[in-house]
Amino acid sequence: MALWTAQDAAAATGGQAVGDWQANGLSIDTRSLQKGDLFIALKDQRDGHDFVAQALAKGAAAALVTHRPEGVAEDAPLLIVPDVLQALEALARAARARTSAKIIGVTGSVGKTSTKDMLGAMLSGQGKTHIAAASFNNHWGVPLTLARMPQDADFAVIEIGMNHPGEIAPLARLARPHVAIITIVAPAHLEAFASVAEIAHEKAAIFDGLEPGGTAILRGDLETSAILLDAARAKAAKVLTFGEESGDYTLSDLRIGPEASCARLRAPQGERLFKVGSPGRHFAVNALAVLATGDVLGLDPTIAAHDLGRWQPPAGRGTRERIMVDPIEDRFFDLIDDAFNANPASMAASLAVLAAAEPTHGVGSVGKGRRVAILGDMLELGPQETALHQAIAALPALRYIDVIHCVGPRMKALYASLPQSKRGDWVETATELVPKARRLFDAGDILLVKGSKGIKVSLVVDALRKLGQSQPPRMNEAE
């Protein structure tokens, strides 16, 4: 079954279809376009109309445009509309209206994408599940995800993000979730918000889109939980809370290994064991919301817990690997790649993972394996950015970390606050640290690389990987 026919897309958007075409997918980028996609000529950093001819040459079924671009044949398959983004939103509304899928919306300052992916792993074992392949959570990402939703989907997971006030509510109303999850509220995007309380109000706007009879799932152990609860109770038919020690769903007996986190879930239905395929307390806590969603949807809890265990984070989101530098002499180091995103809450969570990890002793030149952090700037924190970077020095996890390298002008505040014994290098840019990659580690060390995407500490990750061959870490630790 085609995702969109020319007739259906024209009816949904009020546009003019040129040709009788059928599209099996949607694309906004000619580099990833698949044959049979409807190419969406959005205007962002570049005008998508400049790439319509290329998209059609690559096999696009048609292009969604405001006009026929120069160099495109008069009989080329098109859908002509007054505004491309508004037409994409119209496709999203039509896709949402024609499906009987259960929709789950996810937002939060930290953990949106990993929670979305955990939900996808759990749900896909019990029905046809639609989920965005990447963090498509903004004003074009949410409608694109919805417009890509197959009509016969059983479940769909929609990630909803924001950078400024007023962004979440319209996206939530577009998605109309049956279940809405808030992972956590923490200092992030403080350039646009005066306080964490304001962020909580914005995150709580996801409940504005809840379907009648819908369920709100939120952290019950935050300073801002009262704000979230008030909003949830006003919009949701059912409210569930989760947290480390308090809530309807709580953790007990958490054990963290190099490749997974295993724990016991305490819930109204009783206790059960579960695991997630990455070390980290924060992953285990967000898994509570995932399993709560399974209960709300009436899924088999044993199958749900089993399928959740198949989830692993994507590259840059906390994946751990072993870099074998010299296989003959068994010289290696372990690398935790968390270079995609950073704010104070996620930084604390990642450093806690590093602190709990056990390096390998007796294989390096100094004998004792070390925990090493390479930390890049946390961006979009507004006037409090200096204090928030300095505050990292007071985190309990730092007691267990041997060396900290800092990248970026904001991280200079942390570097100055560190004890001399823990100071590694400070550099203005990640590029300056790349040539030093070989001396950032000794055999047996565990290295965490963490920072906002814009500071590009991923370049350091790439340089470290090039020093050897990557393989999964061995099971040599537990908490």
From TrEMBL:
Ranges for domain Mur ligase C-terminal: 333-452
Q: What is its EC number?
A: 6.3.2.10
Positions in coiled-coil regions: none
Tell me the ranges covered by the Mur ligase N-terminal catalytic domain, including all copies. Answer: 24-95
Q: Where in the cell is it found?
A: Cytoplasm
What family name appears in the similarity comment?
Belongs to the MurCDEF family. MurF subfamily.
Ranges for the Mur ligase central domain?
106-293
What does this chain do?
Involved in cell wall formation. Catalyzes the final step in the synthesis of UDP-N-acetylmuramoyl-pentapeptide, the precursor of murein.
Q: Which gene encodes it?
A: murF
Catalysed reaction equations from the record: D-alanyl-D-alanine + UDP-N-acetyl-alpha-D-muramoyl-L-alanyl-gamma-D-glutamyl-meso-2,6-diaminopimelate + ATP = UDP-N-acetyl-alpha-D-muramoyl-L-alanyl-gamma-D-glutamyl-meso-2,6-diaminopimeloyl-D-alanyl-D-alanine + ADP + phosphate + H(+)
GO annotation, biological process: cell division; cell wall organization; peptidoglycan biosynthetic process; regulation of cell shape
Q: Which UniProt keywords apply?
A: ATP-binding, Cell cycle, Cell division, Cell shape, Cell wall biogenesis/degradation, Cytoplasm, Ligase, Nucleotide-binding, Peptidoglycan synthesis
Offer one Pfam family short name for this entry. Answer: Mur_ligase_M
Per UniProt, ATP binds at 108-114
Task: Please identify the protein, giving its name as recorded.
Answer: UDP-N-acetylmuramoyl-tripeptide--D-alanyl-D-alanine ligase
Q: Which organism is it from?
A: Neogemmobacter tilapiae
Q: In which pathway does it act?
A: Cell wall biogenesis; peptidoglycan biosynthesis
